Amino acid sequence: MLISPLIQNLMAALKCLPGVGPKSAQRMAFNILERNRDAGLRLSALLQEAIHKVKNCESCRILCEETICRLCSHHGRDRSILCVVETPADVLALEQAGGYRGQYFVLMGRLSPLDGIGPDAIGMGLFQERLKEGHIKEVILATNPTVEGEATAHYIAELVKARNIRATRIAHGVPFGGELEYLDGGTLARALLARLVV
Hints:
Mean pLDDT: 92
Structural class: alpha/beta
Order of helices and strands: HHHEEHEHEHEHEH
Strand order of the largest sheet: 4-3-5-6
Number of helices: 8
Oligomer: single chain
Helix content: 40-55%
Radius of gyration: 21 Å
Distance between the termini: 67 Å
C-alpha cells in the first residue's frame, strides 16, 4: 500500500473521535504531518496529560482535575436543587445557557439493558447517597428525549419520589424560533402535553 503503516495507524487512531470517519481522519493526519507538526506535538502532550490527570468529581461525576469540582465546591450554588444529566457536555450546555444555580449529577450515560448498561453503570449508588444527605428538595431530570433517556428519567423519578423529593422534567417541544410546519409529530405531541398557562 502507498501509505506507510505508521500513517495508517495514526488515521485509525483518529477515527476513535466522534464524527471522524476515514476521510476526515486522513485529512487530519496529513494536515498534522504536512503543516502542523508543532501543534501535533502539543496535542499529543495535552492529550496524555488530560488522560492522566482528569477524573470524575467524587460528588457530581463531572470531569475535572480536583477531587471535588468547582461547581460542587462553589458556595453560591443552591444545594437543594440537583439537575441530573447524561454527560459532562450537558452540564457545559446548561451552564452556558445561564439561569441555573443548583448542583448537578452526571450519569455518564443512560440506562440501556440491551447494551448491558444498568443502574450501577450510571452511578445510581452514588446518586442515592447524595439523596440521603437530606438537603435536596428537587431533582430536575435533564436526560435526552430518547427512548433510553426517557426510561432513565422514569427510573430516577421513581427513586426520587420514594424519598418524598420533588422530581421535575425539563420541557421538550417547540424550539424558540421554530415553525410548527417543520416540526415532527413527536415534538408537537410533547409540546401539546407540556403546554403552560399564559
